[in-house]
Amino acid sequence: MWLINSPIGRKVVMSLTGICLVLFLTFHCAMNVAAFFSGDAYNAVCEFLGANWYAVVGTLGLAFLACCHIVYAFILTAQNRRARGDQRYAVSNRRPEVSWASQNMLVLGIIIAIGLLLHLYNFWAHMMLAEFTGAQNAIGAADGFGWIKEVFSCPVYSVLYLVWIVALWFHLTHGFWSSMQTLGWSGKIWLKRWQAIGVVYVTVLLGVFAILVLSFWLGFAPSMC
């Protein structure tokens, strides 16, 4: 199957899974916006999702997409390194049209993967998984808003999340337009447009997450009403 065996097919899989993950981030961002206005509203959203069957199915689908994206990223990186051979050790100046993010996607991806594991531990394990398994005294499952406050009251976690968000910004601003290019949706005119759209969209998207972290860390979060 060309999607698995050919380099172009692998890039298509990377692009499609990446777009799906950006769409999930958009949904996740929209859900978190409720935390800016009311703790009760955020907890209502958490209760609507929780460990319900549709949320569990969505989580499994998301995990599959993330695994495919990560595995294919390593495969494509290994392919590119083999294709370049000894040339990768030669000292050369970066061309102006080649972004810093494009040359460091693997490093950014590793940082993002580590941040994802931290996020799963801090929130998924203490919220959805705790509810699903019926864990006793699981604060996150009973009060998601209170759990966010507790996590981001720790400066170490807040700083790590902000670093994660910055890495995501570099990764997604490059990945956004690159995906459109791989899928054949950009030409000479639309390439610059997709790049501009990607920067604006990703900046707004991740800016919301960054402001959320800072608001809870600095004590500007709303109350439970």
Please, could you describe this protein's structure?
The structure is a single chain. The chain has 225 residues and is an all-alpha fold. The chain has one domain. Helix 2 packs parallel to helix 11 and helix 10 packs antiparallel against helix 11. The radius of gyration is 19 Å and the shape is globular. About 2% of the residues have low confidence. This is Succinate dehydrogenase cytochrome b subunit.
Jot down its keywords:
single chain; 225 residues; mainly alpha; 11 helices; 80% helix; 0% strand; globular; SQR/QFR_C/D; Succinate dehydrogenase cytochrome b subunit
Strand content: under 5%
Radius of gyration: 19 Å
- Overall structural class, as computed from helix and strand content, comes to mainly alpha
Number of domains: 1
